[in-house]
Predict the structure of 3-oxoacyl-[acyl-carrier-protein] reductase FabG.
Amino acid sequence: MGQLEGKTALVTGGALGIGLAVATRFAREGARVILADRNGEGAAAAAAGIGENARAVTMDISNEDAVAAAFAELEAAGWAPDVVVANAGVQLFGQDAPAADLDLDVWRRTIDINLTGTFLTVKHALRSMVPRGGGSIILTGSPTAVNGEGKDFTAYSASKAGMHGLGRTVAAAYADKGIRVNTVQPAYTETPLVAAISEDPESRAAIISRIPIGRAGTPDDVAGIMVYLASDDGAFATGATFQVDGGMTSL
Ligand SMILES: NC(=O)c1ccc[n+]([C@@H]2O[C@H](COP(=O)([O-])OP(=O)(O)OC[C@H]3O[C@@H](n4cnc5c(N)ncnc54)[C@H](O)[C@@H]3O)[C@@H](O)[C@H]2O)c1
């Protein structure tokens, strides 16, 4: 029997990368999964690839009406989630920059999706979960939130630091309502998000040299800890950050 039998999980940014790997693994562990993405076609194709226990919903996390409508649609269909992975995010390579050179528009677009979008996902997850007695919320954080790893990416790093703070605040506020909130912190993980690094041998070697385990992460490296946090095995874990970063921030 899978570890997530009987659970329904929504994963934002589920069309690609880490979100797709997590949703695929959740389904293998017996969960029904919802791939929520602003790329509705990509999410639908990914859901079809997973099978009948998966469905897709088109949702831009930075648009509150779209987030609220998606949760309402799922509730009406009997797919209200017990687990929400707030994973969707952007990193604006070529635009994000050290602070003195950073355009306000790039700052706003990044914060709007990564921080405000995560807040909106969490807000509507709570509204759905609290009346049903609880649930597990998992955020995808970043080493850039906790050290100087993202020094050339001011907006991205600040958005991720905000997410880590949001996770702790919401965990504290809702612990007595059966809601657990945890953050998973992957290191450099080869997905379409970081193509600007992985397609440039020098940048790739430089970032891997800062990971003590000596390799890039894969989306599957992140999936296992998320299964634990989504499952009843993680029942006593809340407000925590789980590093899956090859030792990047702990060694
Ligand atoms: N790849 C890495 O090295 C790495 C490292 C640490 C943290 N992360 C974080 O992991 C998460 C997933 O990253 P990834 O590498 O899988 O990225 P990705 O670009 O491969 O996939 C991101 C997905 O999110 C979706 N998305 C983007 N903006 C959205 C929005 N406004 N609403 C809904 N969906 C939206 C995209 O359409 C895409 O399907 C992000 O939060 C990222 O910051 C990634």
The longest helix spans residues 104-129.
